[in-house]
Amino acid sequence: MSGTMAPSRHGGHPLDLRLVLPAVACWVSAGVLVGQPRLAATAAGVIGAVSAALLCAAMVRTRGRFVGRPRPGRLLGTLSVCCAAAALAGAVVSVQSPARLPDGVRAAITAHEEVTTRLTVSSSPVPGPRAAFGGAPQVRFRATLTDLEGTVERRSASAAAIPGDPGRTGVAVPIVVFARVSGAQPMIGEEIRLAGTLVATDPGDAAAALLFGRDAAEVLRPAPWWLAWANELRSGFSAVSGGLPGDGAGLLPGLAIGDTSAVGDDLDSAMKVSSLSHLTAVSGANCAIVLALALICGAALGLGRLARIVAGLLVLAGFVVLVTPEPSVVRAAGMATAVLVSGSLGRPGRGLPALALAALCLLVADPWLSRSYGFALSVLATLGLLVLAGPLGRYLARWVPRPLAVVLAIPIAAQLACQPVLVLLSPTLPAYGVPANLLAAPAAPLATIVGLAGCLLVPFLPWVATALVWLAWLPATWIAAVARTTAGLPGSSLPWLGGPAGVILTVACTAAVLGLLLRRTPAVLRILSAGLVCVTVGCTLGVFLGTGFGRAAVFPSEWQIAACDIGQGDAVLVRDGERVALVDVGPDPALLTQCLDTLGIDTIDLLVLTHYDLDHVGGLNAVIGRVGTALVGAPENAEDAGLHTRLAEGGAEVRQAARGDSGTLGGLAWRILWPIRGSPVMQTGNPGSVTILFDGGGIRSVFLGDLNEEAQDALLSAGPVGHVDVVKVAHHGSRDQSVALYAQLRASVGLVSVGADNGYGHPTAALLGVLASVGTAVVRTDQDGLTVVAQGPDTAAESVGAVGGAALQVWTERIGSTRVGDTRVGSVGDAG
Fold first, then answer.
1. How are beta strands 604-609 and 627-632 bridged, if at all?
2. Phi, psi for residue 594 in degrees, rounded to 5
């Protein structure tokens, strides 16, 4: 009906593509329409009508004069099924979108008021940045919002009350929660009460809103039994493995059950750079091992075929609950289920149809998975193994022994398939990814199987479980050592184009490499492929060498502003000669220290702490004892005041800043624009962010901290700011911004200090649109890395844009990621 099986050129079973095209159509449709939910119903209707018309045409073609030549009819049938899958995705989006953000929740978001929520926790908490000096840690987790307590007027009129419980509406809004914990962390399945502020996300985000909690959560109801057992196992396993030494202790829970909460930032970065992070993402291999063990045990117990299948599915479901249903886990479980059920019906399942069926079913159930990087990487990695591993193994067997060829083909196939998506996350290529995977591959199954066995035995045989955990710790430590070693080698990350251009180039180069390696490629294509590979390799090595050896020649030595790449947080330097100011210190002292060392900064003459969120003050230890004067906002509690004490003990003069304060930094003049001294409102938190303006040295710049829209409008009302050359965008590019303020600033460059894959959706499309509308070119640390701004040359030929007469040079750490915009900003150095 929907196509045929494509014959394989390399022997073996033909590739069954009948479900692949419908799955792709469903994915594309869902990916587009979740971002435009208002168009989903119309699009579904139109595409559905096209599907019906194509089906009728296919029936006519196959029954008429084309009976002997069915290919046109088959083509129309394939297009009909693809359109039907796309229409189904649109229909699901149109049905689910209103329930994701009902009127009551939307009203609470619009009101910008604190609300008290009832939530059901749906993921394990992930640690956030640590408090600066012993405060309560912050965690992030997914949850389902079921009620806004005490806000009846905000509830959706369409949300029916739950019988017998007039205090609950029965809404189910997927959200991401950011909260402090003072005791036990929230557990999956628990119902909790948490007061905080709701913020809407972009329509295409997996979460409909973000909740920023004020205090620790209160547990209202424990997790049900079918989730509680898994919570106890995870907690027990984490406690046992946490007592082990070194990196293996943090990595082992990730290898065994996908729990990466104990993996430190530096080890996590090393795992990503060395292309080993997939080992801590539970996927097909883990599900296959668990399912195979269940079926083997069932056969040993003498169970019949149907009983073994049922037992296997139950064990698989329990495994998914234990490791939590992350996108990669759900994909793997869906594919395993398809293969198992197909086999029970006497139709041995093949990998590609099972993968396509699993993806299709999951995308129909949850169209927002279409924008999940984790889901995309899981599908692409599996696709690479199914389609590319065999041909690559046969090719490599011509040069190396067959067993080694098979081992080499697996990581190469997965890397080739995933690289187009990986460049969107980080515009680099892992130079040692394949060798690292070869070294780690033998250890991964041992750590996974033995670690999982230890996890299951913790409640029953703790002594045996401890021995198994120690045994699994050995391969986990080996994998961590491989990651750190390869990540520390010279040139571990090669520069690459970012964004859509990088994806297109990656796909083209992948196709070129495959064209050279695989047989039966026409001579003309082989020549073109060889040329493309040579040019790409030459350019990449040239840029890399330029980055390493030519950095001093292209780096603007007379820079004035430098935005450190410190993840989700702010740390921006302003300099005039030997005088240096630092606006905020980011979340991590180690990251800030690395940035200061890179720029050769030893002393901070002026430190500005805009407010006391951890992503702005968590790195303060890096500068204690190195600060001359510190400008701070009003403290909210004793913990905040403790920061002032630590700064003073380190020799700093600490002043509480307010509008009207001013001074100089070398030849630069600075003045405080916000908050207003004595004002009873907007003095603390994000709205009270200390806002400072620097003027001089040819560049006028303003730093907005985390001001929200209301505070930005109040700042504007307090007096005009005027045009600036550089603006440090407020709150990492959240949507809560004042269009009027940015229109008045009309900056040439907008610095967005933001972490990659930050979970907040920063920077938002709304903010990027605002900056584009006023002609501000965006430079963001998640894509561009360390960013330096300097005054441009005086000659007209070299000037690249000006506001108020200042030509700017912008140097970024990563190639191909500087935003040129309307040519008001240029780039030098290895950004090209």
1. parallel
2. -60, -45
Q: Are strands 493-495 and 691-696 parallel, antiparallel or unpaired?
A: unpaired
Q: Where are the alpha helices (DSSP H) in 488-522?
A: 499-517
Ramachandran assignment for 745, one of left (phi > 0), alpha (psi -120 to 50 degrees), beta (any other): alpha
**Helix axis angle, 402-425 relative to 499-517, nearest 10°?**
160
778, 744 contact by CB (below 8 A) = no
Residue matched to tokens 């901290």? 705
Torsion angle (degrees, nearest 10) of CA 729, 734, 737, 739: 80
> Reduced to 3 states, what is the DSSP secondary structure of residue 805?
coil
Give the pLDDT mean for 530-548.
Answer: 54
CB neighbour list of residue 578: distance below 8 Å, 6 or more residues apart = 666
Domain boundaries, the chain: 5-97, 103-223, 500-550, 553-794
Nearest CA to 248 out of 487, 486, 462, 444 is that of: 444
CATH class held by domain 103-223: mainly beta
- Taking the C-alpha atoms of residue 318 and residue 313, their distance in angstroms, rounded to an integer, is 9
Degrees, nearest 5: CA angle 728-179-614: 40
Please enumerate in sequence order all residues whose Cβ is within 8 A of that of 704, keeping only pairs 6 or more positions apart, or say none.
Answer: 689, 691, 712, 727, 728, 729, 730, 731
Confidence band (pLDDT; 50, 70, 90) for 117? very high
Q: Which fold has domain 553-794?
A: Metallo-beta-lactamase; Chain A (3.60.15)
Alpha-carbon distance values, 634 to 630, 645, 682, 718 (Å): 13, 14, 10, 19
**What are the structure tokens assigned to 260, written together?**
């990466």
251 by Cβ neighbours in 10 Å (0-12 / 13-18 / 19+) ranks as buried
The answer for residues whose C-beta is within 8 angstroms of residue 42's C-beta and 6 or more apart is none
- pLDDT band per the 50, 70, 90 thresholds, residue 491: confident
723 within 8 A of 803, measured Cβ to Cβ: yes
Q: What are the φ and ψ backbone dihedral angles of 237, each rounded to 5 degrees?
A: -65, -40
**Whether residue 203 has pLDDT greater than 80:** yes
Answer for the pair 715, 707: CB distance below 8 angstroms, yes or no. yes
Distance CA 334, CA 693 (A): 55
Task: Report the DSSP beta bridge partners of residue 221.
Answer: 191
* 315-341 mean pLDDT: 89
Residue with tokens 């065994």: 256
Q: Which of 154, 37, 28 lies closest to 97, judged by CA?
A: 37
Residue with tokens 């329990």: 318
Phi-psi region of 828 (alpha: psi -120 to 50; beta: other; left: phi over 0): beta
DSSP 190-231: -EEEEEEEEEE--TTSSSSEEEEESS--EEEEPPPHHHHHHH
